[in-house]
Amino acid sequence: MATRKSTPDTSRRSERSRRAIYDAALALVAEVGYPKTTVEGIAARAGVGKQTIYRWWSSKADVLLEAFLDLTDQAAGQEPPALPDTGDLAADLKAVLRATVDELLDPRFEAPSRALAAEGVVNEEVGRQFVAALLEPQLQLYVDRLRAARSAGQVRPEVDPRIALELFVSPLAQRWLQRTGPISHAYTDTLVDYALYGLAPR
Amino acid sequence: MATRKSTPDTSRRSERSRRAIYDAALALVAEVGYPKTTVEGIAARAGVGKQTIYRWWSSKADVLLEAFLDLTDQAAGQEPPALPDTGDLAADLKAVLRATVDELLDPRFEAPSRALAAEGVVNEEVGRQFVAALLEPQLQLYVDRLRAARSAGQVRPEVDPRIALELFVSPLAQRWLQRTGPISHAYTDTLVDYALYGLAPR
Amino acid sequence: MATRKSTPDTSRRSERSRRAIYDAALALVAEVGYPKTTVEGIAARAGVGKQTIYRWWSSKADVLLEAFLDLTDQAAGQEPPALPDTGDLAADLKAVLRATVDELLDPRFEAPSRALAAEGVVNEEVGRQFVAALLEPQLQLYVDRLRAARSAGQVRPEVDPRIALELFVSPLAQRWLQRTGPISHAYTDTLVDYALYGLAPR
Amino acid sequence: MATRKSTPDTSRRSERSRRAIYDAALALVAEVGYPKTTVEGIAARAGVGKQTIYRWWSSKADVLLEAFLDLTDQAAGQEPPALPDTGDLAADLKAVLRATVDELLDPRFEAPSRALAAEGVVNEEVGRQFVAALLEPQLQLYVDRLRAARSAGQVRPEVDPRIALELFVSPLAQRWLQRTGPISHAYTDTLVDYALYGLAPR
DNA sequence: GTATAATCGAGACGGTACGTCCTGTCTTCGA
DNA sequence: TCGAAGACAGGACGTACCGTCTCGATTATAC
After folding, report:
1. For D11-71, which CATH superfamily applies?
2. Which pLDDT tens digit goes with each residue over C91-120?
3. CATH architecture classification, A13-72
4. A150 with A159: CB under 8 angstroms?
5. CB contact under 8 A, C180 and D114
6. What CATH number labels B14-64?
7. How many CB pairs under 8 A join A and B?
8. How far is the CA of A9 from the C1' of F24 (A)?
C-alpha cells in the first residue's frame, strides 16, 4: 500500500515515449499553432497512447513546458552561464540583446515560447513555472553583470540591478509578446543607450 | 439576392442582447476564467441564442474584446484624453503610472484584460486589435507628453519618444503580465527615475 | 424554464438521422457482431455525431432494440395479427412453428435478435422491453389460438394456454438461444405432437 | 525452441492465485454485474497481476466459466449423479424440477449463471462450452430417467427422450432466462403434468 | 542445497471506446 | 427579418480497460 495510483513509477518510464512526445508537441505547435495542438494529436503523432501523456503530465501546457525546457537545456549546454564582461557595459549588453533578438525571431523557438508565454499569462501555475525555469535564470545573468558594473563604478551605486535590467529587457519582451513594435538590433542598441544614460539631458 | 449572409442588418440589431452578451462575457471570464468561458455559456447566461452571438462576432475572443472595449470606454469617458502636464515630467509620469498600477490591480479589469492579452500573444489577429484599440491610444499619450517635455528641454532632443516611453511602461507591463515581480507605486516611481536619469553615474 | 436539458424536443428530431442510425446499427451487428458494435462505429457509419445518438438513446442496446423493433414492425405490417385457424390445431401450430424456424435461421434477423436476447438476459431493463415489445405479442397469438381450440374441445378444459404454449415454443427458443440442439421443421413438428398428446401412453 | 509461449508450465501454477481469481470473479459478477466486471478488477481484487490471468485464461468469460464450474463442482460433489427413480415418473420429475427452481432463485448462482448464459448466446465458443460443461450433463440425467420410464412402459415407446425432456425443462429455462413469466414449484408441477399427459383430451 | 528458470505481483505501454462538452451551422417558431 | 431555442455533424476531452510487455522478487522443481 505504498504506491498510490496517482504516483506512477518513474523508474519504469519509457524514455523513448517521452522523447517522441516532446518532439511531437514541439512540431505540432510549430506547424498548426498552440490552440490547434491537441493532446490527442500529440499522442497520435508520437505513436503513443493518450494515457501515457496523462500519466506523466496534467495538460498540454505542461507537456509543452517540459518539451521546451528540454529543448532549451540542450541549447544551453553550449553557452556559458554568464554574460560577457569586457569592461564595456554598454557593448556587452548590446551584444547579448542582439543575440536575444535573433533567438526571438528564430521560428524554431517562436511558436512554443509564445504559446507558453500566453498560457502563463492566463494560467498562474504555468506562468510561475515558465518564469522560474526560463525567464528568471536569464534575468539573473543581467543582475550579475550589472552588479559587477556597479562595483566598477559604471552604474550608480544606489541602482537596484533587478529593476535596472528591466529598462532594456522588458521593452524588447513587450514588443515581441504583444507586437507593439518591430524588434531589431538597432532597437535594442537604442534601448541600452537610453537606459544607461537616461532621457533627461546631462 | 439582396441581402448577403455575411452582412446582417445592423439597424435591426437588438441593443438589449448586445448589452446582455457583454455583461455575461465579462462576468464569466471573471468567474471561471477565460479558457472555461464558452460561447454556449455566454449565450445561456445572456439569455440569448447562440446564433445571435455568431451573427455579430466571429469568436469568443472577439466578443470579449468588444465587451472590454465597451467597459473601458465607459471608464475613459470621465478621464481627459491626455496626460497631465504640470511642467514636472517626472512627477507627471509617476502620477499616471501610479494610477495604472491601481487599475492593473483592480480585479474588475484584471481577468478580462489578462485574458485578452494572452489570446493576443498567440492569436495575431486578436493581438493586433487589442494593441490598436487599447494599448496604442494609451501609449500615444505618453508620446505626446514626452514630446512636450522634449520641446521644453527636459528630454534630450535626439530621444525617440515612442521608444523612450517603453523604459517605464514595458517593465510594468511585463511584471504584471508575466508575474516576474511585484508592482507598486514605489516600483513605478523608481522606474521613472531610472529612465529619466539613466543608470550610469552623471 | 419549461424544457429541461434532459428532454430534447421530439418535434425537431431528424428523421433522416434516425433512419441512418437504425440502418447502421443493424448492419454493424450483422457484420461484426454485437460486442464489436460500438456507439462510435454506429455514429460514424450513419454519418452522425455521437451526441445525436446519446441525445435520443441511453445505450447501444437501446438503439438496437428500437432499430430491431422498427425492422419487425415493417415486416409485421404484411402479416395478419393472428395465427391461422383451419380447425386442425396440430397442423396450424406446425405451420406457424415452421415459419418461426425459417425466421430464426434468417441471418438478417439472427444477429440483432440474438444480441438483444443476450443483452436482455443480463440487463433487466432491456430484457423487459424486449419481452414486452417482441415476445409477448407473439405469445399472445398462441394463447388466442389455444383458447379457441379449447372452446372447440380440442384441448382439455383445465389447461392454461399461457403455460401450454411454452411446451412447444420454449424448446425451440432454447435450442436456438443456447444452441442445445439443431432446429428444423421435423423437430418442431415433433414438439407439437408430443405437447398435444403427451409422453405417457394413452 | 523447447518451451512454447502458449503453453505455460502447469506444474508450477499457483493454486493460491487460482482460487483468489475464482473468488474475485464470482464476487464481482455478483456485486457489480457481468458487464462491469473487468479483468483488471478481478486481478486487483484477487491481489494478482493481470498477466497471471491472461496466462491461464483467454477472456473474462473464460475465467468466469471456470470459476462457475468450480463452484458447481463443489456443490455437485454432494449430489448423486442421477435422477431419483421411485417408479413414479411424474413425482420424480416434479421433485427434481422443484430443486432446480430453488437453485435458479438462489442469488449465489443467479448472477454468474445468467452472465454466462448471456455471453453464450452471443459468443458461440463460450456458448458451446457452457452447454457442454453445465447444461448437457444435467439434461443427460433426464434422458436416462426417461429411457428407464420408457422401458417401464410409462412413456410411449416412439418418444425421443432428448426431445421429450425439453417439454418441461425448456419452459422453465426460458422463463428464467428471458423473464417471460414467474417460476415456482406449482408452475413446474403443471409443466410435468402437461408434458406427460398432453394438452389434447384423452 | 543450491542453481535456474518459470511464475508471480505490479504496472507502463499502444490502443480503442466511452460518455461529455463545445464548436459553428442550420432550422423552426414567435414577435 | 431578427431573436430565442436548440438539433445537428464533428471533434477533443479525460477516463477506463484491453491485451502485451517488461520488470525484479519469489518459488519450486531439477541438478
Report:
1. Homeodomain-like (1.10.10.60)
2. 999 999 999 999 999 988 888 999 999 999
3. Orthogonal Bundle (1.10)
4. yes
5. no
6. 1.10.10.60
7. 165
8. 13
